[in-house]
C-alpha cells in the first residue's frame, strides 16, 4: 500500500482544477437556494456573493464547465444546477456506508442533507456488539464483520469514517480492500491509501483554529490601527504648532502616520478567505 497519497493532484480529468471542483458545491448550494425561490437567472456578481466567492474566480470556474452565461442576462439557474450536479456526479445515486455509529456517526446517519444531494446511506457499521441490531435513523446497525458483504451487496464506493482515531486506519484499509474508492474521514488522523483512492478530511477543530488565528490577527491589527491613529493625531498637532521651518517635516510625519493608519484600517477589513471550503484534502 502506498503511503501519504491522500488525494488526487491539482487537476482532475477533463482539465478542471481541484480548487474549482472544491468550489462547485458552494455554487450548487447557492444555485439550489435560487432555484427553490424560482429565480430564473442570476448574474455572476450575485451568484459570487451568494456563494462567498470572488466573481472573477466564479467566471473562470464556469469557463471550465463551458458555461459563459448571457451578457446582460446572466446564467440560467436551472441549467447551471444541472450542469454542476452532472459535473459532481450527483445526477446518480451514491450509496454510502458510515463506520462508527457513536455520537457523530448517528448524527450523520440522520442528516437529511445526504439523501437530498444524492447520497443514500446504504449501511451503518459499528464494532460494538451492543450496537448490533439497533435502529439509528431508520437503519439497522450492523457489526464490522458484515462490512465487506454490505459494501459488495450495495455497490458502495464512498465510506464515511466516524470511529476513534486509533481505529481509523484499520477501518480505512478494510473499506479499500472491499472496493471503496472514496473516503470521508472525520477521525483526527491522517490516512494512508493506495493510488486511486480519494480521501477528504473534515476537522471542525482545525476550522476553529483558523478562525482563532484570524481573530488574533484582527485584534493585533486593531491595536496597530489605534497606535497609528494616535501617532497621526500627535504628528498633526505638532505640525499645527510649528508655524515655519520644520513645518514641512512635521507635515510629512503626519502624512506618513495617516498613511499607516489608513493601511492598518484597510488590513483590518480583511477576514478569513471565504473561498476555502470546510472540507479539505486529508
Ligand atoms: N471532524 C470533526 O470535526 C469531528 C467532530 C466530532 C468528532 N470527530 C471524531 O469523530 C470520531 C467519532 O466521534 P464520536 O464523538 O462519535 O465518538 P464515539 O465514541 O461516540 O463513537 C465512536 C464509535 O466508533 C465505534 N468504533 C470504534 N472502533 C471501531 C471500529 N474499529 N470499527 C467500527 N466502529 C468502531 C465505537 O463503538 C463507537 O460507537 C472521533 O474520532 C472524533 O474525534 C470529528
From TrEMBL:
<keyword id="KW-0804">Transcription</keyword>
<dbReference type="InterPro" id="IPR036388">
    <property type="entry name" value="WH-like_DNA-bd_sf"/>
</dbReference>
<dbReference type="InterPro" id="IPR022876">
    <property type="entry name" value="Tscrpt_rep_Rex"/>
</dbReference>
<comment type="subunit">
    <text>Homodimer.</text>
</comment>
<comment type="function">
    <text>Modulates transcription in response to changes in cellular NADH/NAD(+) redox state.</text>
</comment>
<keyword id="KW-0520">NAD</keyword>
<dbReference type="InterPro" id="IPR009718">
    <property type="entry name" value="Rex_DNA-bd_C_dom"/>
</dbReference>
<protein>
    <recommendedName>
        <fullName>Redox-sensing transcriptional repressor Rex</fullName>
    </recommendedName>
</protein>
<dbReference type="InterPro" id="IPR036291">
    <property type="entry name" value="NAD(P)-bd_dom_sf"/>
</dbReference>
<dbReference type="InterPro" id="IPR003781">
    <property type="entry name" value="CoA-bd"/>
</dbReference>
<dbReference type="Pfam" id="PF02629">
    <property type="entry name" value="CoA_binding"/>
</dbReference>
<keyword id="KW-0963">Cytoplasm</keyword>
<keyword id="KW-0175">Coiled coil</keyword>
<feature type="binding site">
    <location>
        <begin position="100"/>
        <end position="105"/>
    </location>
    <ligand>
        <name>NAD(+)</name>
    </ligand>
</feature>
<dbReference type="InterPro" id="IPR058236">
    <property type="entry name" value="Rex_actinobacterial-type"/>
</dbReference>
<feature type="domain" description="CoA-binding">
    <location>
        <begin position="89"/>
        <end position="190"/>
    </location>
</feature>
<feature type="DNA-binding region" description="H-T-H motif">
    <location>
        <begin position="26"/>
        <end position="65"/>
    </location>
</feature>
<feature type="region of interest" description="Disordered">
    <location>
        <begin position="241"/>
        <end position="282"/>
    </location>
</feature>
<keyword id="KW-0678">Repressor</keyword>
<dbReference type="Pfam" id="PF06971">
    <property type="entry name" value="Put_DNA-bind_N"/>
</dbReference>
<dbReference type="InterPro" id="IPR036390">
    <property type="entry name" value="WH_DNA-bd_sf"/>
</dbReference>
<feature type="coiled-coil region">
    <location>
        <begin position="211"/>
        <end position="238"/>
    </location>
</feature>
<comment type="similarity">
    <text>Belongs to the transcriptional regulatory Rex family.</text>
</comment>
<feature type="compositionally biased region" description="Low complexity">
    <location>
        <begin position="245"/>
        <end position="263"/>
    </location>
</feature>
<keyword id="KW-0238">DNA-binding</keyword>
<keyword id="KW-0805">Transcription regulation</keyword>
Amino acid at each position: 500500500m502506498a503511503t501519504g497519497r491522500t488525494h488526487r493532484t491539482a487537476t482532475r480529468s477533463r482539465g478542471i482544477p481541484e480548487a474549482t471542483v472544491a468550489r462547485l458545491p458552494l455554487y450548487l448550494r447557492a444555485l439550489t437556494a435560487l432555484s427553490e425561490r424560482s429565480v430564473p437567472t442570476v448574474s455572476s456578481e450575485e451568484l459570487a456573493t451568494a456563494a462567498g466567492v470572488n466573481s472573477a474566480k466564479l467566471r473562470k470556474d464556469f469557463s471550465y464547465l463551458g458555461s459563459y452565461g448571457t451578457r446582460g442576462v446572466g446564467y440560467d439557474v436551472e441549467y447551471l444546477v444541472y450542469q454542476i450536479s452532472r459535473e459532481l456526479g450527483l445526477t446518480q445515486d451514491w450509496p454510502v456506508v458510515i463506520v462508527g455509529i457513536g455520537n457523530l456517526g448517528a448524527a450523520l446517519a440522520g442528516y437529511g442533507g445526504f439523501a437530498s444531494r444524492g447520497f443514500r446511506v446504504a449501511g451503518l457499521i459499528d464494532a460494538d456488539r451492543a450496537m448490533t441490531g439497533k435502529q439509528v435513523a431508520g437503519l439497522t446497525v450492523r457489526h464490522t464483520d458484515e462490512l465487506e458483504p454490505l459494501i459488495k451487496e450495495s455497490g458502495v464506493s464512498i465510506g464515511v469514517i466516524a470511529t476513534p482515531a486509533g481505529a481509523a486506519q484499520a477501518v480505512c484499509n478494510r473499506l479499500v480492500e472491499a472496493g471503496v474508492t472514496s473516503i470521508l474521514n472525520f477521525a483526527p488522523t491522517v490516512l494512508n491509501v493506495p493510488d486511486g483512492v480519494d480521501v477528504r478530511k473534515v476537522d471542525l477543530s482545525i476550522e476553529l483554529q483558523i478562525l482563532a488565528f484570524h481573530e488574533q490577527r484582527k485584534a493585533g491589527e486593531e491595536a496597530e490601527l489605534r497606535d497609528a491613529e494616535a501617532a497621526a493625531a500627535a504628528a498633526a498637532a505638532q505640525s499645527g504648532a510649528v508655524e515655519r521651518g520644520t513645518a514641512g517635516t512635521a507635515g510629512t510625519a503626519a502624512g506618513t502616520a495617516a498613511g499607516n493608519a489608513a493601511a492598518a484600517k484597510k488590513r483590518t477589513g480583511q477576514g478569513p478567505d471565504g473561498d476555502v471550503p470546510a472540507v479539505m484534502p486529508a
